[in-house]
Design brief:
The chain is an alpha+beta fold. The protein has 11 helices and 4 strands, in the order H-H-H-H-H-H-H-H-E-H-E-H-E-H-E. Helix 10 links the parallel strand 2 and strand 3. 44% of the residues are buried.
């Protein structure tokens, strides 16, 4: 699986359905007049006038119109940004108008490259959430694009030095890495940074937080799985036999934690594979040995 090497180039090739102004006929005449002011400001590339024109839309009593217009602005600004082959300029400004998954994923990729992994994991999960929201993203990107964003979000989450919460939908269901399906893309599972005391099956404080996240994944699933499987992995340090035993004990420790914290009606299978299956990072050579080991030490929730 390849990491998103140039998500800006990828996103520029995708047509943003929200980038066209085709909503005026559904709004009142007053609302449509605000749209014209926005279009004029965009045509002049006058960001100050654009902000002022959009602020005036708050006077328009049509929430659907306002949200659609904001997404249209964001889409046009993002397309302009990518056409100019820029990356970070004005991305946050773009998102202040509306949710555009391309801008969120680009920010996540930039944060990853800057080694701000916790921020990257959050931003990339935001992109997945936006893709999964049909009211915001009418036409989702291809499955391999969703998969690439998911994989980079997972990798950033494994590398983060702090817990990154899973976003929740309007009904409290999991989004981002916690979603069991994203617009047709069905991840086989998700790897979590469940960390243990060296050579033992006891959680570190951070590992316990990650284990609790697994509980949340299952309990807040939109459609709870009929069965789950936990696969323990270790880094390369130590013998194959010792790591195999340790990985089995750690997977069992996570299973016991899930049951103790409310996951009682779903069968849980456990497996340990030791150091036989290192994490498939797109570019391990860009990571330090400690970071590579951190990716390898994980527990995978298979669903």
């Amino acid at each position: 699986m390849t990491r998103i090497a140039s998500i800006v180039r990828l996103a520029a090739a995708i047509s943003l359905t929200s980038a066209g102004f085709a909503i005026a006929d559904k709004a009142s005449a007053d609302c449509a007049s605000y749209e014209q002011a926005v279009q004029d400001a965009l045509a002049r590339n006058d960001h100050g006038a654009l902000k002022s024109a959009y602020d005036n839309v708050t006077a328009c009593d049509d929430a659907v119109f306002r949200a659609g217009l904001g997404r249209a602005i964001a889409g046009k600004l993002f397309n302009r940004l990518t056409a100019e082959r820029k990356t970070s300029d004005n991305l946050n400004e773009i998102l202040s108008y509306g949710r555009v998954w391309q801008a969120e994923a680009t920010l996540g990729d930039l944060s990853y490259r800057a080694h701000n992994y916790a921020k990257a994991a959050a931003q990339l999960q935001d992109a997945l959430t936006t893709i999964n929201d049909k009211s915001v993203t009418a036409n989702p990107p291809p499955q391999d694009t969703i998969g690439a964003i998911f994989h980079q979000a997972e990798e950033a989450n494994l590398l983060a030095s702090e817990n990154v919460p899973v976003p929740r939908g309007r009904g409290g269901e999991n989004e981002g890495l916690g979603a069991f399906t994203i617009r047709g893309f069905k991840p086989s599972g998700v790897s979590m940074p469940v960390q243990f005391v060296f050579g033992k099956a006891d959680f570190t404080p951070q590992g316990q937080i990650a284990a609790q996240s697994l509980v949340d994944f299952i309990q807040h699933a939109e459609t709870p799985p009929a069965r789950v499987k936990l696969v323990g992995h270790t880094d390369h340090v130590g013998s194959e036999e010792a790591n195999l035993v340790l990985s089995r004990l750690r997977a069992k420790a996570v299973a016991d934690f899930l049951v103790a914290h409310g996951v009682k009606n779903i069968p849980i299978d456990t497996e340990g594979v030791g150091k036989s299956k290192p994490y498939e990072s797109a570019d391990r050579t860009s990571l330090s040995q400690d970071q590579q080991d951190q990716l390898d030490r994980r527990v995978e929730l298979v669903h």
